[in-house]
Each structure stands twice: as C-alpha cells, then as structure tokens.
Amino acid sequence: MGNPQGSFIWYELLTSDLAAARSFYQDVMGWNIAERGSDLSDMDYRMIDAPDATVGGAMEITAEMREGGARPTWLGYICVEDVDAVLAAIVADGGTVWMPANSIPNVGRIALVTDPQGAPFYIMKPIPPADSPPDATSTAFDPEKTGHVAWNELTAADHQAVLPFYTRHFGWQPCGAMSMGEMGNYQFIKHADVRIGAMMDRPKNGPPPHWSYYWRVDDIDAATKRATAGGATILHGPAEVPGGDYITLATDPQGAIFAMVGKQLEA
C-alpha cells in the first residue's frame, strides 16, 4: 500500500542562495544535496539525500516568486488521491491557492495552498519512479531515522479552530495534549495511528501561522554547534522534550526557519 491521503511525503526548501544553503545543510545535517538540478524540469531543483533515502528538494527563489512575496522557508507536501478535488474542497473551506494545480511529468500533480489561517503547504498526487512498484511508499517522514523529518509542527493563530480543517481533508485526529502554561496547550495529532506532530497557538508578536519541520540528528549538541558556526540564528534550545529527545529551533543563514531533534550525547 502506498502513502494514504494525509501523509507527509516530501519537504522542500525555498532559499535566496541555493549554493550557500547547500553548503550549510550538508555540513549541519550530513545530507548530500545535488550539485545541479535534476532533469525533471527547467528549474534548478536539487534533491536532498539522507543516508538511506531522498527526503526532499531545494530550489532558489525566482524573481517572479520574490515579486509574489516568497521568502526563504521550508514547505511540506501532503499526499492526496485527487489534487483537483482536494484543492476545490480546501478553497470552499476557507483555504487559499498560492499555486494552481499543475502536473510535472514523471513526478505528479501538485498545488500550493494555505489553511484558513494562512499556513502554507503543498498537496500532491505523486507518480512513483519508474523503477519503483506502483504502491511505493515515501519515507521522508520517519520519527526515528537520522536525516528524516521526525515531527511536523503547526504554529497557528488558533489551533483549535483550524484542527477540524485538517481532520476533514486529511483524516488527522487529536491524540492528547500537553499544557504549556501561558502559551496554552500543545495539541498532538496522529494519522493512521501514527503520531505525526502537533499544533499550538502562535505567541503574541510571533511569526505568521506556519509549519515547522523537525529533522532528526544523531547528536543535538554537535548539530546545534555546527548550525551556529555556519551562520544560523538559534531561536530556542537545545531543550529537552518529553521522551528524552532534545530540540533546537533556528533560522538558517538565509532566514528559513528549521528545527532539529535528537539525543544529547555524553561528552
């Protein structure tokens, strides 16, 4: 069985300096990012390889995208069975279309949208690679594997109000919550009985609603030091979270928010 509707299947970095971002993330994350774009389109789109699998892509923001307000960011792709039908349902439910549905040969059909509170994400019906079985499953999201996204976190204007939107379109369900004091609850979410992340309200004067993606690293302290040395701005952490992991939230040198999760190894 392939990825069911509602699965996170891909992650994409939009950046203002692709060469600099490639150098930064290869050093911090240990990824291998292609030196040149793939042959799948006329864009300079670089594949991001973790040690065991391809987990995403990176591209430089074009002049046209910049004029439309694009800025450095990470975006997630959510799998759907019918992009056009889901797109119409999202619009009817208060979402916004940032990029209309279009088909990429040998890749799939995609659209870029926002939820009703403005957090952007892609929806996609992928075409498995020619050398893969028709029911091939993406593993870009994997809670345990190094170099993969282990946690998807929505910072919303009102997470309780927007949760039903995601439940209706992607089948996600709440699965417990953790109090964060004055910041309110941290609402855990699951999909197909797997805890995939959480939702929370944005702090006052914080950034607009957005998704953050936590990439798993082997050693959170070492990765945070590499990020700092590479020009990242650390916003929070390393800080312990329930379960024994530690997290670091940062912006990369071009300004994209990124996050890491991992163990704190003894010196």
From TrEMBL:
InterPro entries: Anthracycline_SecMetBiosynth, Glyas_Bleomycin-R_OHBP_Dase, Glyas_Fos-R_dOase_dom, VOC_core. Pfam families: Glyoxalase. Residues 7-126, 145-263 form the VOC domain. This is VOC domain-containing protein. It comes from Stakelama sediminis. The lineage of its organism: Bacteria, Pseudomonadati, Pseudomonadota, Alphaproteobacteria, Sphingomonadales.
